[in-house]
Amino acid sequence: MMMKRLLAAPALFALLALPSTASAQLAPAAPSARLAPVTAAPETTPGTRFYEPDDRKFRRPPADTAASGAAAVTAADPLATAAGQAMLKAGGTAADAAIAMMITLTVVEPQSSGLGGGGFLLWHDGKSGVTTTLDGREKAPAAAGPDRFLKAEGQPMGFAEAVPGGYSVGVPGAVALAAEAHGRWGRLPWADLFQPAIRLARHGFPVSERLNRFTASRKAMLARDPAARAIFLDPRGEPWPVGHVLRQPALAESLEQIAAEGPDAFYKGPVGAAVSEAVANAFSNQAALTAADLAAYRVTEREALCRPYRQWRACTMGPPSAGGIAVLQILGQLERFDLGKLGQDNLLSWHLFAESQRLAFADREAYGADADHAPVPVAGLVDSGYITQRSALIRLDRAMAEAGPGTPPGVAPRAAQPLADVPSTSHLAAADSRGNVASLTSTIEGPFGSGLVAAGIVLNNELTDFDFNPVRDAAPAPNRVEPGKRPRSSMAPTIIFDRAGKPVAAFGAAGGATIIAQVAKAIIAHLDWGMSVEDALAAPQVFADRRGFRYEADTRIEAMAAGLKALGHKDVRSATLPLKGNALVRQGSGWRAAADPRSEGQALAISR
Q1: N or C end: fewer C-beta atoms under 10 angstroms in the chain?
Q2: What is the mean pLDDT of residues 294-318?
Q3: Is residue 18 within 8 Å of residue 195, measured between CB atoms?
Q4: 292-303 burial, b if ≥16 CB within 10 A, otherwise e?
Q5: How far apart are CA 255 and CA 457, in angstroms?
Q6: What is the 3-state secondary structure (H, E, C) of 6-54?
Q7: Can you tell me the distance from the alpha carbon of 341 to that of 198, in angstroms, rounded to the nearest whole number?
Q8: pLDDT (mean) for 418-422
Q9: Which active-site residues does the annotation give?
Q10: Which residues contact 270 (CB under 8 A, 6 or more apart)?
Q11: What is the mean pLDDT of residues 193-221?
């Protein structure tokens, strides 16, 4: 059970005392502030469609997931959060804390994110007042062309056929993202940021319920890769039980090399060589991801995508994320409705929220892609006039019969393309006392990515975020595979600003396409309904797209189902949605952070 893991943490951290400027700082919160011993199911079982009902539950009182102080951190795993807190206590910035948490998640949450994948960082600099985004999304290697996922007869591969092995692996961007962020905004030595992860990898940590469950769901895939099997399965080929101390010496060695030599150890050194070898000799779909691909990888700085929402301003990630655009569209389309007056217990609030999602998801399916390689009408999609037109399609008295993509200014009509999102990924956030805020979403795509492990690092399957069919409406699909291209993403790290331009909140989530709905819901719950950050994350979730209307099981929405059907919503039913959000909000002169009470996450703070 989770409590075994958490009760073991104090002794674990005593063993792992850091020989650095963060020494003795990596300590867990008091047991009373930790998770309660309950059966965990923070996300739906991988391998099933996320909207299928599931009777397993994991939920803590929201207050148990929050912490307040002059500076605060939140991540999807308590051990990662503790690593971030240690960096703040050692005098590090929000960037130092965010990087340390991302690196530590490589060890303790290998099924969701890590250095074998990539991520998006939204950064607000307290000194300059500038908000920046860093794109550390994976890239397609040079050998990956539009026919990457086509069979010999020209038909697209099935998703389950494309994921395992080498075809799905993109050039990882997480290490480069960490190095770029540290070089710009970090204060602590680079090597210090790796120490919590190194110690946990070398000396081990107790397997959590979620790690055990996700391992069981991908047991067959992990068994096919000798390196993965040796780490995550016991001698009988079964997942390590909850509470088992999982040690990863190969990963510890890789982390030590990157800590000592910098990102070149990954992109030009022995770790990168292991990545190339793993992809070339994969148990399935062998492919080329060469030393040249790795050496050519660069993080891209992009302008934050911002637009007003009532008296606030929301800033998020632009392409290759389609998630940020969708969040801004949802908020903009709802701005003409008084959600605050309607409140969270009003059937119409959830009806309006669902309708706005449907419109945003239709546009996402039609236009989402890497704008460096495809014509993405970013300005048009968030244009005030266009959003007003789309909002006009939303009615209070009935649901739209169909919600198709619109035609933003300057483009021809385009058809939507069904997506295959996988509920994984991880979000984290940090705010320091200097006014810096980091909102970072990290991913390897599906649970355990491609199923390949190189030098102890789980490799992503991000290329399956591309459209498998390279042609749409007799024209090249915007999100088709191309060398050097980044696949479309749902990730939507977001920061909210007040009228004075001061950051007042940061939101993000994991869970495939539900990321968009989670982030938008949490923003509305906090800003419109006046809920605390922990209650905003805990508020019931609705997810609505072309497939129907899904609401979180065993919540107040259950009593509204009949009314929603009467409004014309189709296929209304409860589901165990893949929900895992993290957020922080300004509280007086400091911050209050929270983790989703459905997850294993935790928030921690410091007083200075």
Answers
A1: C
A2: 97
A3: yes
A4: ebbeebebbebe
A5: 9
A6: HHHHHHHHHHCCCCCCCCCCCCCCCHHHCCCCCCCCCCCCCCCCCCCCC
A7: 50
A8: 55
A9: 425
A10: 257, 455
A11: 96
